[in-house]
C-alpha cells in the first residue's frame, strides 16, 4: 500500500503530466515548454523508482536514506568538488573553517574512487602514528571505504578527543594491508607560523585559509616589522586552500586598496570582482611566494594575484590547478549542497583550472632521501572541469622548465610536507638568496 505522502506525490505527478500533455497537444498559452515537459518526466521517473524501492526491496528502508542517497548520487555525477552534506557533515564543515576539531590530523581526497591520504598534519596523532602521504584507506574501524564520499569519510575519522579509531591502509612497498590504531585529539590548525630568518628576512607559513587567517597574518606581520625585517617570504606550499574571503583578505595585506585580487564567472557569464580592502597600511616588502603541487584554490588565488600585479616573485613548482568556486547552499532539514557554481580567474584573466600557477622561478624540492610521494593534481581527478581559457595541462604533459630535473620519469609526483631543516630546504634557500641579492643590488654604490 502507498503511504499518504506517496499518494500525494503521485497525484501531483499525474496533474503535472496531464497538464503537460494538454499544453503539448493544444498549446494552451505556452505554460509548459518542451524542456519543462522533459523535466516533469524525469521527476516522474524518480518518484516511480522511489516508490518501487520502498515497496519491493527485500528489507525495509528509510525514505530519508533513499532520498539522501539519490541526492548524493546526483552531486557525485558532477565535478569532484560538488557534494551533498547530510546535517552531520555540514556541521563538520562549519567546524573545519574555524580551525579546531576532534580528529586524527590528516588531509584526505578521492583518487581513482579510493580514499587517499594527501598528507598528515604536523604534530598530530596521524603523523605520530606514521601515516604517509599516498596511503590508501580501505577501511575505517573495520568498515570498507568503498563508495564513501569525502564528507562521509571525514565524519567517520573525526570524533571526541580520547576516542579510538583504526584505519586500514595499503601502501606501496607493503605486502599486505596495515592496520593503524590512533587516539583522536583536538586538532588545532594553526594557519600562521612566522619567524625571522637570515637576520632581516621575515618568513610566514600559511597552512590553510580559515576565518581568522587574515587577522593572524596581520598580527604576525606587525611582529615581524617590529623586528626590522626588510624582505618577506610567504610560504604557501601544501596549502590546500579554504575560504575565498580569506584569500582576498590575505592579499589585501600586500597590495593597495581597490586592486583586483580575483574575479569569478558562473554559467551565465556574469563577472564578479573581488578587490583588496585595507583599513591599514599594506606591507610593501620585496617578496617571494613559495608554492608547489599541494598549493591549491585560495593559495593559487593569492599567488596569482601577487604575480599578476608584479608584487612578488613566485618560486617553486606548478600548483595544483583548482580554479573552481564552491557555494554551500543550506537545505531546510539541516543538510547542504556544496555546489560548484563558478570558475575564478587571476587579475590578468588567467584561469587556474587544471593548469595552476606557473612559478617565475621553478625549483624542485630536493628531499634528503631523494624520494617523493604521489600526490595528484586537479587534472588527474575524475570528472574535473576543463580550463575554459587554455588547454595547457589537458592535452599534453607538463614540459620541463629551466631548473627542473629533466630525468624525472613521473611528472605527477610532487613534493609533500616533509620535516627538513632550513639548510636542507633548497626552495627556501633559493628564496633567501634571491632576496639577499636584491638587497645587495640596491645597496651597491652608483658608478660616478
Could you explain how this protein is built, in words?
The protein has helices at 4-26, 34-56, 63-76, 87-98, 125-128, 150-157, 213-226, 244-251, 298-308, 426-443; strands at 83-85, 100-103, 106-111, 114-120, 136-140, 143-144, 164-170, 178-183, 185-188, 192-197, 201-206, 231-235, 260-266, 271-275, 287-291, 313-316, 324-330, 336-345, 361-362. The protein is of the alpha+beta class. It folds into three domains: 4-61; 100-188, PDZ domain (Pdz3 Domain), CATH 2.30.42.10; 192-443, Alpha-Beta Complex (2-enoyl-CoA Hydratase, Chain A, domain 1), CATH 3.90.226.10. Helix 4 crosses helix 6, helix 7 (213-226) runs parallel beside helix 8 and helix 8 runs parallel beside helix 9 (298-308). The termini are far apart. The model is unreliable at 6-30 and 395-417 (pLDDT under 50).
How many runs of DSSP E, i.e. beta strands?
Answer: 19
Helix content: 25-40%
CATH superfamily of the largest domain: 2-enoyl-CoA Hydratase, Chain A, domain 1
Count helical runs. Answer: 10
| Radius of gyration, in angstroms, nearest whole number | 25 Å
CATH architecture of the largest domain: Alpha-Beta Complex
N/C terminus separation:
100 Å
Helix-strand category: alpha+beta
Mean pLDDT across all amino acids: 82
Q: CATH topology of the largest domain, anyone?
A: 2-enoyl-CoA Hydratase, Chain A, domain 1
Q: What sequence of helices (H) and strands (E) makes up the elements?
A: HHHEHEEEHEEHEEEEEHEHEEEHEEEEH
The domain count comes to 3
Amino acid at each position: 500500500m502507498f503511504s499518504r505522502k506517496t499518494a500525494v506525490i503521485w497525484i501531483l505527478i499525474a496533474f503535472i503530466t496531464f497538464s503537460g500533455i494538454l499544453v503539448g497537444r493544444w498549446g494552451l498559452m505556452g505554460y509548459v515548454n518542451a524542456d519543462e515537459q522533459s523535466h516533469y518526466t524525469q521527476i516522474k521517473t524518480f518518484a516511480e523508482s522511489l516508490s518501487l524501492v520502498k515497496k519491493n526491496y527485500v528489507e525495509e528502508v528509510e525514505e530519508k536514506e533513499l532520498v539522501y542517497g539519490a541526492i548524493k548520487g546526483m552531486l557525485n555525477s558532477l565535478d569532484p568538488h560538488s557534494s551533498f552534506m547530510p546535517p552531520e557533515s555540514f556541521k563538520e564543515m562549519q567546524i573545519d573553517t574555524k580551525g579546531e576539531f576532534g580528529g586524527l590530523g590528516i588531509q584526505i581526497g578521492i583518487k581513482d574512487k579510493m580514499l587517499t591520504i594527501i598528507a598528515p598534519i604536523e604534530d598530530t596523532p596521524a603523523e605520530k602514528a606514521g601515516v604517509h602521504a599516498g596511503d590508501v584507506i580501505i577501511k575505517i574501524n573495520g568498515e570498507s571505504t568503498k563508495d564513501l564520499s569525502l564528507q562521509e569519510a571525514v565524519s567517520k575519522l573525526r570524533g571526541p578527543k580520547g576516542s579510538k579509531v583504526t584505519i586500514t591502509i595499503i601502501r606501496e612497498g607493503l605486502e599486505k594491508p596495515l592496520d593503524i590504531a590512533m587516539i583522536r585529539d583536538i586538532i588545532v590548525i594553526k594557519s600562521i607560523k612566522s619567524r625571522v630568518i637570515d637576520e632581516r628576512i621575515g618568513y610566514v607559513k600559511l597552512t590553510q585559509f580559515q576565518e581568522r587567517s587574515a587577522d593572524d597574518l596581520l598580527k604576525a606581520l606587525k611582529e615581524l616589522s617590529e623586528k626590522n625585517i626588510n624582505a618577506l617570504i610567504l610560504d604557501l606550499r601544501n596549502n590546500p586552500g579554504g575560504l575565498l574571503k580569506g584569500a582576498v583578505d590575505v592579499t589585501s595585506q600586500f597590495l593597495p586598496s581597490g586592486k583586483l585580487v580575483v574575479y569569478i564567472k558562473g554559467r551565465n557569464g556574469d563577472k564578479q570582482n573581488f578587490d583588496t580592502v585595507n583599513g591599514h597600511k599594506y606591507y610593501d616588502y620585496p617578496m617571494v611566494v613559495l608554492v608547489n603541487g599541494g598549493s591549491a584554490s585560495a593559495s593559487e588565488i593569492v599567488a596569482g594575484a601577487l604575480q599578476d600585479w608584479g608584487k612578488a616573485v613566485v618560486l617553486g613548482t606548478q600548483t595544483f590547478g583548482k580554479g573552481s568556486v564552491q557555494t554551500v547552499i543550506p537545505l531546510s532539514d539541516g543538510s547542504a549542497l556544496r555546489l560548484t557554481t563558478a570558475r575564478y580567474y587571476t587579475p590578468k584573466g588567467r584561469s587556474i583550472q587544471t593548469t595552476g600557477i606557473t612559478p617565475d622561478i621553478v625549483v624542485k624540492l630536493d628531499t634528503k632521501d631523494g624520494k617523493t610521494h604521489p600526490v595528484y593534481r586537479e587534472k588527474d581527478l575524475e570528472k574535473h572541469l576543463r580550463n575554459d581559457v587554455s588547454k595547457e595541462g589537458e592535452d599534453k604533459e607538463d614540459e620541463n622548465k629551466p631548473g627542473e630535473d629533466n630525468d624525472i620519469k613521473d611528472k605527477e609526483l610532487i613534493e609533500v610536507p616533509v620535516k627538513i631543516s632550513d639548510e636542507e630546504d633548497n626552495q627556501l634557500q633559493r628564496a633567501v638568496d634571491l632576496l639577499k641579492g636584491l638587497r645587495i643590488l640596491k645597496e651597491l654604490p652608483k658608478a660616478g
